[in-house]
Specification:
- The chain is of the alpha/beta class.
- The protein has 11 helices and 12 strands.
- The protein folds into 2 domains: about 200 residues, Isopropylmalate Dehydrogenase; about 130 residues, Isopropylmalate Dehydrogenase (3-Layer(aba) Sandwich).
- Helix content is about 40%, strand content about 20%.
- Helix 1 packs across helix 9 and helix 1 runs parallel beside helix 11.
- The chain binds 1,4-dihydronicotinamide adenine dinucleotide (NAI) and magnesium ion.
């Protein structure tokens, strides 16, 4: 079997602690990976004047998948600094952002939740068409049929492998032009998938239902800003930042990352929770088609959480190294029981 090239970008802060843990887990799978380490982020910017060096972009472009830690961004705009993760998503045309939200066996997680938020990752209010005078500021919202169709098509394809239910989230009653186009494109795509149930919900109702009735959702598909907000809201239901992974993908490649940032308040102390990165590793494996290995990773995460081996963010005393060792051991035990 030919090797998959995996680009590793630790970034700043705890990115440098959780990405080595993620690499250890990838190595433990025994799959034929070739790793390329690349740098990006605030420290890189300070040393080299760019947050995303050309060779990092090249490494990510030529890899089948990238595991990205986190980067620090300055609070005030700094001349020449652009967020490397935003630039990567754009350069690689990673049009879909996937955020799985799954109940975990810890006190901070609600039970019964297994949903997936599929967020459009390239347009909406994030295209940067802004202008302002002293007294009026305008940000243009761009929604295209092409981008809407491809994100919704992906959502339906993913739903087919789950509980076959997609909720189309929009605000077409008010944003008639932009959300109207998204809604129309979404229902046109829905007709290609007669085996998947499609319904729709206004975004404000969806925000409420995520709190009152999250068990009812399977796949939610929505535009960029709504997805940004709903996915952070949903992550809080099941244990928060230390556990939340995400993927930025297209049909060819993906950048997989923990949702959290560089956490300067705890960086360098060896107590960062690596579970979100392990969840990102599981998503990376899914994307490469290694579904069984991915599900074994998720099971290992659950096993270790269930045992109460928790980092301080989840109320425990375990270190990054201890949690990593436990997950690797649980993963190996599962490999034995399934004979693979
Ligand atoms: P953050 O996610 O870094 O931290 C928020 C809080 O959660 C902190 O108290 C932190 O200690 C805790 N936390 C986060 N991840 C954790 C983990 N794995 N284990 C244990 N505790 C964890 O968000 P914050 O503080 O708003 O931003 C810090 C820096 O990260 C900023 O420079 C920001 O721009 C950047 N950032 C980068 C992101 C990325 O690279 N995708 C995403 C979000 C923020
Ligand atoms: Mg966000």
């Amino acid at each position: 079997m030919s090797a998959w090239t995996i680009c590793l970008i630790p970034g700043d802060g705890i990115g440098r602690e959780v990405i080595p843990a993620g690499r250890a887990l990838l190595e433990a799978t025994g799959l034929p990976f070739a790793f390329v380490e690349a740098e990006a982020g605030w420290q890189t910017f300070q040393e080299r004047g760019t947050a995303l060096p050309e060779e990092t972009l090249h490494a990510a472009r030529t890899a089948q998948a990238t595991l990205f830690g986190a980067v620090s961004s300055p609070l005030q705009p700094v001349e020449g600094y652009r967020s490397p993760i935003v630039a990567l998503r754009r350069a690689l045309d990673l049009y879909a952002n996937l955020r799985p939200v799954i109940s975990q066996p810890i006190p901070g997680s609600r039970p019964g939740i297994d949903l997936l938020i599929v967020r459009e990752n390239t347009e909406d209010l994030y295209v940067g068409r802004e202008r302002a005078t002293e007294d009026e500021a305008v940000t243009e919202r761009v929604i295209t049929r092409r981008a809407s169709e491809r994100i919704v098509r992906l959502a339906f394809r993913l739903a087919r492998e789950r509980r076959k239910h997609v909720t189309i989230v929009h605000k077409a009653n008010v944003l008639r032009a932009t959300c109207g186009l998204f809604r129309e494109a979404a229902f046109a795509v829905a007709r290609e998938f007669p085996d998947v149930r499609a319904d729709e919900m206004l975004v404000d109702t969806a925000a409420m239902r995520l709190i009152t009735n999250p068990e009812a959702f399977d796949v939610l598909v929505t535009t960029n800003l709504f997805g940004d907000i709903l996915s952070d809201e949903a992550a809080a239901l099941v244990g928060g930042l230390g556990l939340a992974p995400s993927a930025n993908i297209n049909e060819r490649q993906g950048v997989f990352e923990p949702v959290h940032g560089s956490a300067p308040d705890i960086a360098g102390r060896g107590i960062a929770n690596p579970m979100a990165t392990f969840g990102a590793v599981a998503m990376l494996l899914d994307h490469l088609g290694e579904r069984q290995v991915a599900s074994r990773v998720r099971q290992a995460i659950r096993t270790v959480l269930e045992r109460g081996c928790l980092t301080p963010d989840l109320g425990g005393k375990a270190t990054t190294a201890e949690v990593t060792e436990q997950v690797l051991r649980a993963f190996a035990d599962l490999a034995e029981t399934v004979g693979g």
